[in-house]
Amino acid sequence: MDAPLLAIENLRTYFYSRAKRAFIRSVDGVSLEVARGETLGIVGESGSGKSVTALSAAGLVTAGPGVISGRIDLYSNGARRNLLDGLENYARIRERDGRVMEVEKDERGWRKRSETLMAGVRGKEIAMIFQNPRSALNPYSTIGKQLMETIRLHTKLKGESEAKERAIHWLERVRIDSPRLRFDNFPFGMSGGMCQRAMIAMALSAEPSLLIADEPTTGLDVTIQSRIVDLLAQLKAETGITTLLISHDISVIQRLSDRIAVMYGGTVVETGRAAEVLAPEAKVRHPYTTALLASIPSAETIRRKSYLQAIEGEVLDTIEVPRGCRFYGRCNRVTEAIRENCAGSEPPLGEVATGHKVRCWLYPATGKA
Amino acid sequence: MKFAAVKPVSRVLARELAVTALLLFGVSVVVFAILYLAPGDPLNVLLEGQSPRSELALGMREALGIPRTWYGQYAAWFGKMLQGNFGNSIRTGLPVLPELARVGVYTLTLTLGSLALTLLIAVPIAVHAAAHGDTAGNTAATMVAYVLSAVPVFWFGYIVVYVFIHTFGMFPLISGTAAKQEHAWLYFLVPIFVLGVASGTLSEMIRHLREELSRVLAEDYIRTARAKGAAVWRHAFKEGFLIPVTEIMSAKIPFLLGGAVIVEQVFNWPGMGRMAWQAAQDRDFPVIMGIALVAAAFVRLGNLLQRVVFTAVNPRASRE
Q: Quick one: which of B170, B213, B167, B210 has its CA closest to B193?
C-alpha cells in the first residue's frame, strides 16, 4: 500500500447508557489506514460504528466517555501527529480477558487536550461533510458568508473581496447554478442537493488533505443522491483528495471507493480493494459482506420479482458483546468444524490475500500476516 | 444585498406600531370603563369631609366643565389626549404629562437598571451551564437564583432595608431627595439590586437562556462549525443567545413593572408605581389613565424590540 495519510489503530469509542447502566461499545478496536489519494469506503448497517469512527477521527465526539483508547496518526507536511496523543493520561481502562470493564475518564480535561491537538487540523487538514445538509448549514447565515469564513480561516486569502471571489469559484466548481446569486442565499431557500453542494464547496475550500464524507447522500431525494455521488466522483478526479467515505448504501460505496472496510458491531470484519471485496465471483468473503451484498436489489431480483434478501436476526447490540464472533448469532455459514471457535473466541482479522483481510474462522490466515 | 434585511424590519416596525396604537386605544377604553364602573368619585378628594351629593359637588362639576355622560367624559379626555394634553391631576392640579415624565425617569432607571443587573447575573450562569453541563458551581448559583426569585419582592426588600440600612446603617433611607446628596448613585443601587434579584425574572432568564443555548449547541450546524474549525459562539450567538434573551426580556417587562410598584413603595422611590398607587387611592382619573397608557406603551416597546431583533436576525422571518 502507498504511504498512509491517516492511520487509525485499535480505536475504542464507548458511550455510557444511563438507562441500561452499561457501555455501548460503538467502536471497539478499529484499525484502518487511508492511503494518500485513495478513497476508503466504510460500509455497514446502522449502529455498526462507522459514523462514530469518523467523528472520533475528527475529534467531534461529545457524549461521554467517548474515545477511550487507540491512536489516530495523521501524516501531513512530512510529520506524523497522533490526534489522540496523551489520551492514556485522561482515560484509565480496566480490562478483563481483553474486554474493557471499567472506564475512568477526565472528560473535561480530555476535551481541552483534544481541542489543542485538533487546532489547525480540524477544517484545515481534515474537512468533513455530513448527512442532512440543510440542518448542517447555519440557517442564520448566508451560504457565501459561511464559505468565506472557512476560506479566511484556513487559506492565505484574508481579504474580503479575494475571499469572496474564491468562494464563488468554489460554488462554481460544485456546479451550483448562478453562484453569484446563491452566494447571498440562506440555506432555507435552497434544496437539499444545493445545500450539500454548498457543504462540499465549504469543506474543499480549505484545501484539506482529508475529506471525511459521513453519509453524504442520506437525507436527500433519491434522484439527487446520484447527482451528489457524481459530483463527488468528479471532484475526486479533479482534486485527487484523499477521502474517507461512510455510507450504509453499498452502491454509493461501490461507485466511489478504491478500498473498502466492512464494519459490524464496532469492528472491521473485512477490508480490501473494492474490486476484490465486491467482485461477484469472489470466493473468499466474510459471511456478513455476502449478506450485505445479497440485500441489494439487483436487476435480476427485480426482473424475477423475487423478495429481497434481508439479513436474519437483529443488528448486534453493542452492549452485550458476545465472547465469540460478533456475527455468530446471525451467521448462516457456520460449519460443525469451526462452531466451537465461532462461539468461543473472536476471530482475528487475517490476511487471506495481499491487502485483503477477513475476520472469520472460515478463512485461516495465509500465514504471512 | 446588505440592505435586503432592512426592508422587512421596517415593514414589521410599521405593522407593530399600528398594532400598538390600536392596543393603546383599547387599553384607554378598558381602563376608563373600569374606573367609571368602580365605586368612588374623584370629587370626594377635593370635597373632603363634605357630602358628595351636596349642591357643592354639582356646582364643582359644572365649574370644572365635566360632561355628564360617560361617553362625553371619554370623548373629552380622548380629544385632549390626541393633542398631547392628558389633563390635570385632580389631587395636585398639576398637568399629568410633565408629571409622568418626571417620575417616569425614576421608574425607567429602576426597571432598566434591574434588567441590566438580571442580565449581568443570569447570562454567565446560563452560558456556563449550557457549555459545561451541570457543575457544582453553576448548580449552586442556579439554586440561589431560584430561591431569590421565589421570595416575594416586598419581603426581600424589607430584609434588605433591615439588614443594610437599619442594622449596618450603610445607606440612608432612599427617597427622591437623595439625588442631591453625595454619592447619590450608591443609594439608587439598593432598590435596583432588590428588583433585579428578586423580581422573578432572574430564574426565568437563567432557565430560558440555558435551555435555548444548550439546544442550539446540540444542533447539526454547530457541529459543522466545530468541524470546520470556526468559533462556536459566533455561530450559536444569534439563535442561542440574542433571540432567547430578547424574548425573555420582552416577556418579563410587565412583571418588572408590577415589581417596581412594590419596590417603589418599600424604598420610598418617587416613581410611577408609587404615583399609580397614590392615584388609585384618590381615584385620580387623569393620572391613572396616563399611567396605564405609559405602562402599556412600555410593555409594547419591549415586544416591539423583540419582534425587530427576531426579524432582523432570522432570515425566514424576514422573507415571509
A: B170
Residues of A with CB under 8 A from a CB of B: 58, 60, 108, 118-124, 127-128, 130, 132, 135-142, 149-150, 153-154, 184, 186, 188-189, 199, 202-203, 206
Specify the pLDDT at position B1: 43
CB contact under 8 A, A138 and B224: yes
**Residue of A138, A143, A148 to mutate when probing chain B, most B C-beta within 10 A:** A138
HEC secondary structure over chain A: CCCEEEEEEEEEEEEEECCCCEEEEEEEEEEEEEECCCEEEEECCCCCCHHHHHHHHCCCCCCCEEEEEEEEEEEECCEEEECCCCHHHCEEEEEECCEEEEEEECHHHHHHHHHHHHCCCECCCEEEECCCHHHHCCCCCCHHHHHHHHHHHHCCCCCHHHHHHHHHHHHHHCCCCCHHHHCCCCHHHCCHHHHHHHHHHHHHHCCCCEEEEECCCCCCCHHHHHHHHHHHHHHHHHHCCEEEEEECCHHHHHHHCCEEEEEECCEEEEEEEHHHHHCCCCCCCCHHHHHHHHCCCCHHHHHHCCCCCCCCCCCCCCCCCCCCCCCHHHCCCCCCCCHHHHHHCCCCCEEEECCEEECCCCCCCCCCC
- Quick one: closest CA in A to B235, which residue? A138
Residue A267 CB partners (closer than 8 Å, separation 6+): A28, A29, A30, A49, A326, A359
Q: Which strand (E) or helix (H) includes residue B171?
A: none
Model pLDDT for residues A223-264, shown as the tens digit of each residue:
899 999 999 999 999 999 999 999 998 889 999 999 999 999
Q: Is residue B45 classed as helix, strand or coil in its secondary structure?
A: helix
Pairing of the two strands A210-214 and A126-129: parallel
The ipTM value here is: 0.89
Q: Do A140 and B1 touch (CB under 8 A)?
A: no
Instruction: Compute the half-sphere exposure of residue B10: CA atoms within 13 Å on the CB side of its CA.
Output: 5
Verify whether the Cβ–Cβ distance A127 to B227 is below 8 Å.
Answer: yes
CA distance A219 to A192: 8
Whether residues B221 and A149 touch (CB distance < 8 A) is answered with no
Other beta carbons within 10 angstroms of residue A158's beta carbon come to: 10
* Residues of chain B predicted below pLDDT 50: 1-3, 320
Say what the pTM is: 0.85
Domains, chain B, in order of start with CATH, read: 97-318 (1.10.3720.10)
**Which grid cell sits at A87?**
489520551
Is A248 within 8 Å of A219 (Cβ atoms)? no
Give B169's DSSP letter. -
Express each pLDDT in A46-83 by its tens digit. Answer: 888 999 999 999 999 988 799 999 999 999 888 899 99
Q: Length of chain A in residues, anyone?
A: 369
The answer for residues whose C-beta is within 8 angstroms of residue A120's C-beta and 6 or more apart is B229
* pLDDT beneath 70: ranges in chain A: 1-2, 298-302, 305-309, 312, 314-316, 365-369
CB-CB contact of B126 with B206 (8 Å):
yes
Sequence-distant (6+) residues with CB within 8 A of A101 are A94, A95
